[in-house]
Amino acid sequence: MSHVVTLEAVTKKYGELVALDNVSLGFPQGRFVAVMGPSGSGKSTLIQCAAALDQPTSGSVTIGGVDVGSLNETKRTILRREHVGFVFQSYNLLPAITVEENLTLSLRLAGKRPDRAWIGELVERVGLQDRLRHRPAELSGGQQQRAAIVRALAGRPDVVFADEPTGALDLRSAAQVLDLLRGLVDDLGQTVVMVTHDPAAAARAHDALVMADGKVVDVLAEPSAEDLAARLTQLARGGLAVHAVGGVR
Ligand SMILES: Nc1ncnc2c1ncn2[C@@H]1O[C@H](COP(=O)(O)OP(=O)(O)OP(=O)(O)O)[C@@H](O)[C@H]1O
């Protein structure tokens, strides 16, 4: 199985605090991977390092075959722009421009010509054809998040990192966003890595990676919400038994 992003022995320290502790894993091409774990377990730090937003203290990260540690800041920015898409809990659409302009802004700033046919296909997939000329504030939260997903995919990234993408949404909108992410993986072969606190959301992923104390302590293939909730409860009580490893190395 080829990996879009690989971490080898990645450690991230903040002073004495070890936020990531010698983590080695790969995010496989065309899989939807959820990252779960108690607060402070290192989920955000893992994603920040895996997405080249932050540098590990030691170890290496490879994105699309490129060793991130070998790049200077400018080249890292270009690597992120060309290979990585981001979806945030708070959508992060610019309020003063239309939805359509938001979808292509970062491509245009990078001097790229947006692929209109591809973006049109994505817009249709997320059902926002009649919302393109509106400002983001005129859309519901679910619609704004669906627009943010189109924006993340507009440049055909190798991997999309989604940080609590359903955290601000009601149940129905959250389900639509999760269906959409899963469909992008199953139908288009997109690779998606999603941080979530919600076992039901993580259960829509192919694999769920469970973190505790800066380590990956479980990888559950085709996880159920019940199994994940039980595992998180166990971790909250201090249990660290290591379970069988599935599709994510
Ligand atoms: N910039 C920073 N400076 C100092 N400590 C940090 C910094 N960022 C994270 N940490 C610490 O590193 C550890 C891991 O934090 P991280 O944000 O990765 O956890 P998390 O699992 O994403 O938590 P949450 O679910 O609450 O968002 C925590 O102890 C946190 O306090």
TrEMBL record:
GO terms for molecular function: ATP binding; ATP hydrolysis activity; transmembrane transporter activity. The keyword Ligase does not apply. Residues 5-238 form the ABC transporter domain. InterPro entries: AAA+_ATPase, ABC_transporter-like_ATP-bd, ABC_transporter-like_CS, ABC_transpr_LolD-like, MacB-like_ATP-bd, P-loop_NTPase. Keywords: ATP-binding, Nucleotide-binding, Transport. Gene3D superfamilies: P-loop containing nucleotide triphosphate hydrolases. The keyword Transport applies. PROSITE patterns: ABC_TRANSPORTER_1, ABC_TRANSPORTER_2. CDD domains: ABC_MJ0796_LolCDE_FtsE (cd03255). SUPFAM superfamilies: P-loop containing nucleoside triphosphate hydrolases (SSF52540). GO terms for cellular component: membrane protein complex; plasma membrane. It holds the Pfam family ABC_tran. This is Putative ABC transport system ATP-binding protein. It comes from Nonomuraea endophytica.
